[in-house]
Design a protein that fits this description.
256 residues, mainly alpha, 10 helices, 0% strand, globular
């Protein structure tokens, strides 16, 4: 990928400048969703669950919800926002009248989406730590997982956004893709205790499962270095393949 880092950073800075104007409108729904789940399910439903692998149910939920916060931060940035800039506002066409190239646009958008994921995920991690649900200092191993989760879902979201014909299609992305991932990716219950055989192997294809499992390892909730290595490899490979696909799409859309 031929990328000019200064030009990509210019795209990042433009997005950051726009975000500062309405940051509170963006951060409230995406950040407080996992906070509300932690309070309602972790502390509410969790009061009726005596033990979850030697820890409280709220503590079990915490690492998965940190990953959900990162997923939300990246996903909302590279879906509706990318589509509006590309299709309606024609911002990328304007950028290409400068020395900025399509690869710079793609890399800058990914960098900004990962930055938003890092802000959302790290802020929520601090909330979890203040609730006493993060076993410090070991849980600090979670911090590198947050941008990895952001990168994975930035790559998935931008590859999808560059290929769809209308903005209405995003309802399928969030309802039929992100919501099932949220519910069935080891966030609310351990998959290995509910699935077996081929179903367990099929679950390995779920993108959110891998950052969540890394987060659980960081929080000392099971796992191993070998499994963590596989999870990092999965994230790296999937993100690389989807960014390659997104690069082809963005060049096709912006170069005619």
């Amino acid at each position: 990928m031929s990328v000019s880092v200064p030009h990509a950073v210019s795209v990042w800075r433009r997005n950051a400048a726009m975000y500062r104007r309405t940051w509170w409108l963006n951060i409230l729904p995406n950040f407080f969703e996992p906070v509300l789940y932690l309070l309602s399910i972790g502390l509410g439903v969790g009061a009726y669950i005596t033990e979850m692998g030697g820890t409280s149910y709220a503590a079990f939920l915490a690492p998965g919800l940190v990953c959900v916060a990162a997923m939300n931060g990246a996903s909302f940035e590279v879906t509706y926002n990318i589509f509006v800039r590309l299709t309606f506002e024609k911002q990328y066409d304007a950028m290409l009248t400068t020395p900025i190239q399509p690869d710079d646009v793609l890399f800058g958008e990914i960098l900004w989406a990962v930055s938003r994921a890092a802000v959302y995920g790290t802020t929520f991690f601090i909330v979890v730590a203040l609730f006493g649900l993060a076993p410090l200092p070991r849980a600090l191993l979670m911090l590198p997982v947050i941008p990895l989760a952001g990168l994975l879902f930035a790559a998935i979201g931008i590859a999808f956004s560059l290929r769809i014909p209308t903005i209405e299609v995003f309802s399928f992305y969030f309802t039929l893709f992100l919501t099932p991932l949220f519910l069935f990716s080891d966030v609310f219950f351990p998959l290995k205790e509910r699935l077996s055989g081929g179903w367990l192997w099929m679950a390995e294809a779920l993108p959110l499962l891998h950052p969540v499992r890394l987060a659980r390892f960081a929080f000392g909730q099971g796992g191993s270095v070998l499994v963590a290595t596989w999870d990092v490899t999965y994230i790296a490979v999937v993100a690389t393949v989807l960014l390659w696909w997104a690069r082809k799409a963005v060049r096709a859309r912006l170069i005619s």
